[in-house]
Design brief:
The complex is a heterodimer of chains A (271) and B (189). Chain A is mostly helical. Among the domains of chain A are: 96 residues, no CATH class; 79 residues, Arc Repressor Mutant, subunit A (Orthogonal Bundle). Chain A is 48% helix and 4% strand. Chain B is of the alpha+beta class and 189 residues long. In chain B, strand 1 and strand 2 form a beta hairpin. Chain B has nine helices and five strands, in the order H-H-H-E-E-H-H-E-H-H-E-E-H-H. Helix content of chain B is 52%, strand content 13%. In chain B, helix 1 crosses helix 3 and helix 5 packs across helix 7. The chains are: A mainly alpha (271), B alpha+beta (189). Chains A and B meet through helix 1 and helix 4 of A and strand 2, helix 5, helix 6, strand 4 and helix 8 of B.
Chain lengths: 271, 189
Amino acid sequence: MVQQEEYTIKLPTFEGPFDLLFHLIKKAEVDIWSISIADITEQYLAYLQSMKELNLDIASEFLVMAATLLRLKSKLLLPRAPRSEEMEEEEELFEINTAEELFQRLEEYRLFKEVAHYLQQKEEDQKKVFLRSTGGQKVMVFTQQESVYTIWEGAHHLSDIMQRFARVALAGEYMPAFSAVEDFVISQKADYIQSVLNQKKRAMPMKAFVTKTGLWDIIVVFIALLEMSRQGKVNLLQEKPFGAILVSLKPESEMVEKEGESGERTTKKDY
Amino acid sequence: MEKEQQKKTIEALLFLSEEPVKPDKLAVVLSAAPEEAEAMVRELQEDLFSAGRGLQVFETAGGYQMGTLPELAPYLEKAFSEDISSNLSNAALEALAIIAYKQPVTRIEIESIRGVRSKHVLENLVKRKLIKISGRKDGPGRPILYGTTADFLKYFGLKDLGDLPQLEVEEEETKTVQHDEADDNSAQA
């Protein structure tokens, strides 16, 4: 094989599939509303092909658009399919089912692209105007900062949790988490949980596995359970937020038997 | 306060201020009506222009600010180090354009118009304080809504959002219909 020469080619970069399509349309000097799906599909694919030949990464969005274009093209060629035909779930980015929809989306994109150019121009203009900067020595007495508040919906939950925790901690029910530096090992705890469950042969509440007082042990039990659940060893059931957590062993046989049934459980095994 | 005195005061005030000064603030300082203050600003603008000065007063983000003339930029750049903040990327400008017109708007809506994932672009714009999280949309997932900030107006030297060009929508009403459908779909999901 001939050794590849190194060379650089400058390709225009596109912000996305719409940008590329728009570029192709402009090159063809046609109006958005009068493009031929077949032509544009061909050009689009040719461009992707050249990107591939240049070993450029092609972002997935470009490929999804290629698929969308091909489908639109095939729809135009084939007799109308019955409406009842199920449409495969598509990425919401390209919910485009007809050529008109594609044109509309392109038109919308074009509008905002123009605004983006306008903003770029304004940015340039504004950069040429130098403003005073006193380094904040003079403070305007009446400058009212329009603060930007970030709304985090969970905030009141967090304070609620913290208050509850403070109450419990103050009542002395929990030892501080890190007072005793004990060397708990998650896997040891997991073994313990497994042995208890094997013995009892029924679902147990999570707190049954907490053997020591202190928050630390609860944390270890919880992490051990999460790990075991991930490994598919146990089922965890919690009926409501902050409710008790029930733990049961996942029988090996069950995993095989239940497969194929439309189950609540999803196992990752294939047939 | 005497009229000449008022004009001098405005000049001094705008000279000192690092931020745009709103008409009602000017009014407080001058003990005059906001409209009077604005009329005074316009006089000052003309004075500066006709006297051939290197400074100008311009309207931005709902207020007035003093700055240098754009034509002086090449010379001033020799004296002042270049602006550290680099220009915005095309992706950022696209996202800003969409947010400016469609706000409050979700990330998904922005991505659907751009046809590209835009998470990082939005994060950077929030960091640069050009956009802010303005709330959450009612509906599944309560997605974050984005809007532009006062810094956005300042950055581009816009008086307000009305200063942006009109979108020349060439096409029919189907666009809004399409949006409604999209909303319905997401509500059902």
